[in-house]
Specification:
Chain A: This is Fe-S cluster assembly protein SufB. Chain A: InterPro entries: Fe-S_cluster_assembly_SufBD, SUF_FeS_clus_asmbl_SufB, SUF_FeS_clus_asmbl_SufBD_core, SUF_FeS_clus_asmbl_SufBD_sf, SufBD_N. Chain A: Belongs to the iron-sulfur cluster assembly SufBD family. The complex is a heterodimer of chains A (512) and B (427). Chain A has 512 residues and is α/β, with parallel strands linked by helices. Chain A has 12 helices and 24 strands. In chain A, helix 2 runs antiparallel to helix 3, helix 7 crosses helix 8 and helix 10 crosses helix 11. The longest helix of chain A has 18 residues. The N terminus and C terminus of chain A are likely disordered. Chain B has 9 helices and 19 strands. Chain B is globular, with a radius of gyration of 21 Å. In chain B, helix 2 runs antiparallel to helix 6 and helix 8 runs antiparallel to helix 9. In chain B, the strands form 2 sheets. In chain B, strands 2-1-5-7-9-11-13-15-17-19 form a 10-stranded mixed beta sheet, with helices on one face. Chain B has a 9-stranded mixed beta sheet with strand order 3-4-6-8-10-12-14-16-18. The model of chain B has no long low-confidence stretch (mean pLDDT 93). Chain B has one domain. Classes of the chains: A alpha/beta (512), B alpha/beta (427). Chains A and B meet through strand 22, strand 23 and strand 24 of A and strand 18 and strand 19 of B.
Chain lengths: 512, 427
């Protein structure tokens, strides 16, 4: 019986909220594992393992050297301890750094050749059949008619990463027509070395932090996106990460480049089997937005959170950063964080271009023994830059949920603007909710506002709604949903439903 | 965990010229404080709570020289009837001080009381300081406990007719002063404690205050216009049931000021308010670091900090509310705001909440920006010159913090001072 069952429902938190939180945090739908033969690299981490990963991916020498440099650097680094998370020391030599389904050694040519176990995996995860076919790597599937009931504009191109390798990328041909490159990063290193060389590590440098450096040394796969100048990417792009193998760390690397005047929306989903041992996931995501480019990056993070006693679960140590290099560029991070036993994640924006914009919307739910330390950094360097942070943390059970963020206005970031709002909701008296914002203002024409109450939703809008007979809670829910809606609608249907539910919860009881 | 050698060396260099007083009952507390200090080391620029304020001038062995500030203004609180206790560069000045006698309280100097074998202050000296290091170490306070030779010990048993006023004079350009005060407010008693003056070229001051059930302590501090002085102060307060502690500081210049306030709400329905108004101009760094722990139900805490900064001045606010498990019905409020009057000034803030109880109302807000153009336009449209209009708005901005002082005459006096200072700078 979960701690939530014994809970008295308090004023401002209704039974529905408690139920939904239990549903989201309590039962894990993706906890099964696929029994499939795997190729492993030997356990542990050495320079040879780094070389082996590079070799398995068929990488050129410059890439191998890049990795080895990162590995050397990593040996001198210490694990960070400043976050409000507490977990047993990780033995980095007890992990596998590379795992690949045996059947993927050669890319299958038809549906019949694909390991049925892989197909089954995707089916169980709820990836539609049409995509499943392509995911399984069947050539020619791109040209098949869209599945019934799925309109063309709801098409989502998926790159599926199974343990260490990309299994398949859908709709590549259609994207190619638009000039968009969407492939696995291992492919990009071979096919588009000039782009990878130019941008890889330019946002998150090799020596950025302990986990990013580790990732730089051992990343096995991930997604690569390049949107050429002036192109509006014709469909949503998505990566689906699945950890399957035991004692395997997943280290994916995503690189998204939005060239001048382009637009792309990118989604990320992740699940893992239910196991008693904790597993490590250390990803790096780099986004580059050139002049007038816009990137939306949405995550529904649903790694296995561990059981009710806090056994098992994924350690999610992720570095995500966007560089708004060009003037008027825009990056929007949206995250719904419900999984992982330990989360350490700060999707950030470097607002370098004048008039560039960064946004961060986050809903983090922790339950049982989960620990989340998440937030964002908005570094304002260019003039007239704007950023907005909306973070909702919900904790239940014995969990701990921390918002940690930085807003920094540099001296030359004149006339910049930041608005931050972070609200926490606690369900039960055994959990914790913390807020650790850092605010650095180094010029006087910029305005920075940090609020931790919901009473500061735009007063005019609130007044308007209330005039029409809504009570305050309803009005605030409407307003917050209003600005969150466009983000939520960008998510695939099943994600959007889940996320919308979560938004409703996050507002519950926050007014009053 | 043992300190790395460079840190130990730095500490040894810092304390080489200091000597621990050979006194009576405080001696054990002093040695314990030194042992604590040896474990935590002096603050360094990489320490979490020193990332916004460079500790170097506060920890280096010799106090940086500070020219004496020529001042033709009447000293703060001069118009008030109060019991004056004067320290010049950290040394008690008997001639300038009043008799240490007032109905409703017992006052002694630490230097005199410390020779006795037993004293009520034994249960307070270094005790709250020691508790205050978890989870954030405050090495400068431990340094003070170990080496401060003087200060006052005040036990409040009734409601004295006038405030006790600690006056800190600065007469030597290189003085490095340490004072350590203990205040014990007995159940139902009430005291107003005033502090003002530059004190020394470098001043390290600690107040430990224990407020018993139903007791009240008002603390009003003025850190004046003295341009080159440096100060690191700590206030440690522990509050019993239904007790009240209100502390207000006004800081106007001084190159370096670090005010730390550590409050524990231990009894139900305790009330703790900490507020500060600061006006910084030029080479000025002011830091308010506040840590309030709610350990009992139905307590209220409030932090209100306002900073006006210009000509490259820096204002820092690090405020934290910790609500322990079980401290239900907590009401915690925190606001930190800065008004940046020109391009070069900066405001650095870290308003933190750490909450382990579900039935609480905690909020914090922080804003930073320029003066409101619309308001300025409004005033100018009514014929008020720009400089004066800016001052009116600046004063209105600071007023919200000054209003936190309960005594209206004191608040009025401080507002008048701020007004005069702003007008004077305008010329």
């Amino acid at each position: 019986m979960s701690a939530l069952d014994k809970l008295d429902v308090k004023e401002g938190v209704d039974r529905d909220t408690v139920e939904t939180v239990r549903e989201v945090g309590g039962k894990y739908k993706y906890g099964w594992e696929t029994d499939i033969e795997m190729d492993y690299a030997p356990k542990g981490l050495t320079a040879d393992i780094v070389r082996l990963i590079s070799e398995k991916n068929g990488e050129p020498e410059w890439m191998t050297d890049w990795r080895l440099k990162a590995y050397e650097r990593w040996l001198q680094m210490k694990e960070p301890t400043w976050a409000f998370v507490d977990y047993p020391a990780i033995d980095f030599q007890e992990q596998y750094y590379y795992a690949r389904p045996k059947s993927m050694a050669e890319k299958p040519k038809s549906l019949d050749e694909v390991d049925p176990k892989l197909l089954e995996t995707y089916e169980k995860l709820g990836i539609p059949l049409k995509e499943q076919m392509i995911l399984a790597g069947v050539e020619g599937a791109e040209n098949a008619a869209p599945a019934e009931g799925r309109e063309a504009e709801r098409k989502v191109a998926v790159d599926a990463v199974f343990d260490s390798v990309s299994v398949g990328t859908t709709f590549q041909a259609e994207l190619k027509k638009a000039g968009v490159i969407f492939c696995s990063i291992s492919e990009a290193i071979k096919e588009h070395p000039e782009l990878v060389k130019k941008y890889l590590g330019s946002v998150v440098p090799v020596s950025d932090n302990f986990y990013a450096t580790l990732n730089s040394a051992v990343f096995s796969d991930g997604s690569f996106v390049y949107v050429p100048p002036g192109v509006r990417c014709p469909m949503e792009l998505s990566t689906y990460f699945r950890i399957n193998a035991e004692n395997t760390g997943q280290f994916e690397r995503t690189l998204i480049i939005a060239d001048k005047g382009s637009y792309v929306s990118y989604l990320e989903g992740c699940t893992a089997p239910q196991r008693d041992e904790s597993q490590l996931h250390a990803a790096v995501v780099e986004i580059i937005a050139e002049e007038d480019a816009e990137v939306k990056y949405s995550t529904v993070q649903n790694w296995y959170p561990g059981d009710e006693e806090g056994k098992g679960g994924i350690y999610n140590f992720v570095t995500k950063r966007a560089d708004c290099r060009g003037d008027r560029s825009k990056v929007m991070w949206t995250q719904v964080e419900t999984g992982s036993s330990v989360t350490w994640k700060y999707p950030s924006c470097i607002l370098r271009g004048n008039d560039s914009q960064g946004e961060f919307y986050s809903i983090a739910i922790t339950n049982n023994h989960q620990q989340a330390d998440t937030g964002t950094k908005m570094v304002h360097l260019g003039k007239n830059t704007r950023s907005r942070i909306v973070s909702k943390g919900i904790s239940a059970g014995q969990s701990s949920n921390t918002y940690r963020g930085l807003v920094s206005m540099h001296p030359r970031a004149k006339n910049s603007r930041n608005y931050t709002q972070c609200d926490s909701l606690l369900i039960g008296d055994t959990c914790g909710a913390h807020t650790v914002p850092y605010i650095e203002v180094k010029n006087n024409s910029s305005r920075v506002e940090h609020e931790a109450t919901t009473s500061k939703v735009d007063d005019d809008q609130l007044f308007y709604c209330r005039q029409r007979g809504m009570d305050e809670e309803e009005a605030v829910a409407l307003i917050v949903n209003g600005f969150a809606k466009e983000v939520l609608q960008a998510l695939p249907m099943e994600f959007a439903m889940e996320a919308q539910q979560l938004v409703a919860i996050s507002l519950e009881g926050s007014v009053g | 965990m043992a300190l790395p050698q460079p840190k130990l060396d730095a500490l040894d260099a810092r304390i080489a010229a200091l000597s621990m007083p050979e006194d009576g009952w405080p001696r054990a507390a002093r040695e314990a404080a030194l042992a604590r200090l040896r474990e935590m080391g002096l603050p360094g620029p990489r320490d979490e709570y020193w990332r916004f304020t460079r500790p170097d001038t506060l920890v280096q062995a010799e106090a940086p020289a500070a020219a004496l500030f020529e001042n033709d203004e009447a000293p703060m609180f001069d118009a008030f009837d109060r019991l004056k206790i004067v320290f010049t560069d950290g040394v008690f000045d008997a001639e300038a001080s009043d008799d240490l006698a007032l109905e409703g309280i017992e006052i002694e100097r630490l230097a005199e009381a410390a020779t006795a074998d037993l004293h009520w202050a034994r249960d307070l000296y270094g005790v709250l300081e020691a508790r205050g290091h978890s989870p954030v170490p405050r090495p400068l306070a431990a340094l003070n406990t170990a080496f401060a030779a003087d200060g006052v010990l005040i036990r409040v048993t009734g409601r004295p007719s006038k405030p006790v006023s600690l006056i800190y004079r600065h007469e030597s350009e290189t003085s490095d002063a340490y004072l350590h005060h203990c205040v014990k407010v007995e159940a139902g008693a009430e005291l107003t404690l005033l502090e003002n003056g530059p004190a020394a070229a470098r001043f390290n001051n600690v107040i430990e205050a224990e407020i018993a059930d139903g007791g009240t302590l008002h603390h009003v501090r003025a850190q004046g216009r003295d341009h080159e002085r440096r100060a690191a102060t700590h206030v440690f307060a522990r509050l019993g049931r239904q007790s009240v502690f209100k502390s207000f500081s006004v800081t106007v210049n001084g190159v370096m000021t670090r005010n730390e306030c550590v409050i524990e709400l231990d009894g139900e329905e305790g009330v703790a308010h900490v507020a500060g108004a600061c006006v910084g101009d030029g080479d000025f760094h002011q830091d308010d670091t506040v840590f309030i722990t709610h350990a009992a139900e139905r307590c209220e805490s409030r932090q209100v900090f306002k900073k006006v900064l210009r000509n490259g001045a820096t204002g820092v606010f690090q405020g934290k509310i910790l609500v322990k498990p079980g401290a239900q019905k907590t009401d915690g409020y925190q606001i930190s705001q800065s008004l940046l009057l020109d391009e070069d000034s900066q405001f650095l803030a870290k308003p933190e909440l750490e909450i382990y109880a579900d039935d609480v109302a905690c909020s914090h807000g922080s804003t930073s920006g320029d003066i409101d153009e619309d308001a300025l336009f409004y005033l100018r449209a009514r014929g008020i010159p720009e400089g004066e209009a800016t001052d009116i708005l600046t004063l209105a901005f600071l007023a919200e913090a000054v209003e936190e002082i309960e005594d209206e005459t004191l608040a009025g006096d401080i507002t008048a001072r701020l007004e005069a200072w702003l007008a004077r700078r305008r010329g």
